[in-house]
Design a protein that fits this description.
The protein is an alpha/beta fold and about 230 residues long. It is built from 6 helices and 16 strands.
């Protein structure tokens, strides 16, 4: 299993030979490690409708034929935009696509798609647990801290957790460290920080917060374009 950070909340996750692209905000992302034309996913997972997460998902799926996975409203929006392969789901549900098990889990945030100042689609923000023979990854999406994370850890036992630490719009380092305690992954990778000034954070502060809680978890700090393999 290989997890590659593309900057912000965008990740490529390769499990069992399947390329999963999550929250592909690449165009307009000053930290993006790839352009939309440089990715070739099998699946595209979208956590919510904000532009820095939905990103280039529609265009990528139309170009590559990848399947877009999203909460019902996001999936129907994508279908209306010309995406042919869509898997709609909702919180608590599980689907199997390309041999991978995808579970949609809660996130605490907002989600509307806004175009020209008008809301064109709604939906609830979510996270995902993606599991295959080679491992499992929890992408929390944009979220605040919640006790839902303890259930996610107990039920699905993700080995790798991808958690936002940028604060202001999501958890900050202190809250994200507590999330690690609730989830109990083997590895945690911080995300959603440093892209823009309002979410500047020091990932090493997050690592210190995790250590202060005495957690037996490996904190992996990536630069955009870098990968973690296990």
């Amino acid at each position: 299993m290989r997890v590659t950070w593309l900057g912000h909340a965008a990740f490529e996750v390769e499990i069992d030979g399947v390329n999963v692209l999550i929250d592909p905000f690449l165009s307009g992302n000053p930290k993006a490690a790839k352009s939309p034309d440089e990715v070739d996913p099998d699946l595209v997972l979208v956590t919510h409708g904000h532009g820095d997460h939905l990103g280039d998902a529609v265009e990528i799926c139309k170009r590559t034929g990848a399947t877009l996975v999203g909460i019902y409203e996001i999936a129907m929006y994508a279908k209306g935009q010309g995406v042919e392969n869509v898997e709609e789901m909702n919180i608590g549900g599980t689907i199997e696509v390309e041999g991978l098990r995808i579970i949609q889990v809660p996130a605490w945030h907002s989600s509307e798609i806004v175009e020209d100042g008008e809301i064109v689609a709604g939906g609830t923000p979510v996270g995902y647990v993606v599991s295959g023979e080679e491992g499992s990854v929890y992408h929390a999406g944009d979220t605040g801290l919640s006790m839902d994370m303890k259930l996610i850890g107990e039920l699905y036992e993700p080995e790798v957790a991808l958690l936002p630490i940028g604060s202001r719009f999501t958890m900050g380092p202190k809250e994200a460290a507590k999330a690690v305690e609730l989830i109990e992954p083997e590895v945690v990778i911080p995300m959603h920080y440093g892209t823009f000034p309002p979410i500047d954070q020091d990932p090493e502060e997050f690592e210190r917060e995790v250590k202060e809680l005495g957690l037996d978890v490996e904190v992996v700090i990536l630069e955009p374009g870098e990968s973690y393999e296990r």
